[in-house]
């Protein structure tokens, strides 16, 4: 009876583990499908931005901020592409929060990126404070402030990345 009980318990545990493994596999498949969808979406987004950068008539469709010239608009669109690409790298896990912070710190040194960032401030106003993009937007705001206030020429050490 003891052997039968032990065999029954081991069989039940084995079935439970297999069920848990199938559940993990289903979760992993969903995560991989989401990641693939994000990659496809990003490719489409960057393709659209590329077309707009190359064609002033298409760029005018995306112009939701004051710009001085078609060149300025293309620079804004390119800054948006750079920011979106950095954010995307973090979202799909090819960059850590610390790496994203470092990449954005480099972007924030550019006066043209800062102009883009300031002119898109109203766009970010509707982001929820606790959203991922809201937190990262505040991180960029803090980087710009920290770079402006830094007492060092070593800009690459300015600012602390938020915890992941």
Question: Mind explaining what this structure looks like?
Answer:
The chain is elongated, with a radius of gyration of 23 Å. The chain has helices spanning 2-54, 56-62, 70-91, 97-108, 111-119, 121-124, 132-149. Helix content is 76%, strand content 0%.
Structure at a glance:
The protein has 164 residues and is mostly helical.
Features:
single chain, 164 residues, mainly alpha, 0% strand, elongated
Structural topology:
Layout: H1 2-54, H2 56-62, H3 70-91, H4 97-108, H5 111-119, H6 121-124, H7 132-149
Helix pairs in contact: 1-2, 1-3, 2-3, 3-4, 3-5, 4-7
Q: Rough shape?
A: elongated
Secondary-structure element series = HHHHHHH
Helix and strand content put the structural class at mainly alpha
Approximately how much helix is present in the residues?
Answer: over 70%
If helices are DSSP runs of H or I spanning 4 or more residues, what is the number of helices?
Answer: 7
Total beta strands: 0
The end-to-end span amounts to 53 Å
Q: What's the alpha carbon Rg, rounded to whole Å?
A: 23 Å
* Poorly predicted parts: none
What do the pLDDT scores average to? 82
Content of β-strand: under 5%
Largest sheet report: none
């Amino acid at each position: 009876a003891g052997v039968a009980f032990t065999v029954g318990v081991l069989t039940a545990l084995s079935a439970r583990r297999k069920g848990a493994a199938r559940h993990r596999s289903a979760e992993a498949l969903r995560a991989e499908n989401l990641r693939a969808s994000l990659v496809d979406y990003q490719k489409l987004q960057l393709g659209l931005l590329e077309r707009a950068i190359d064609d002033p008539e298409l760029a005018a469709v995306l112009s939701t901020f004051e710009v001085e010239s078609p060149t300025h608009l293309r620079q804004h669109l390119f800054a948006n592409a750079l920011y979106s690409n950095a954010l995307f790298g973090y979202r799909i896990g090819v960059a850590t929060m610390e790496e994203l912070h470092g990449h954005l710190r480099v972007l924030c040194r550019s006066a043209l990126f800062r102009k883009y960032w300031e002119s898109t401030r109203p766009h970010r106003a509707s982001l929820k404070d606790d959203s991922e993009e809201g937190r990262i937007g505040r991180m960029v705001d803090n980087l710009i402030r920290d770079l402006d206030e830094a007492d060092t020429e070593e800009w690459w050490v300015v600012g602390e990345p938020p915890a992941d």
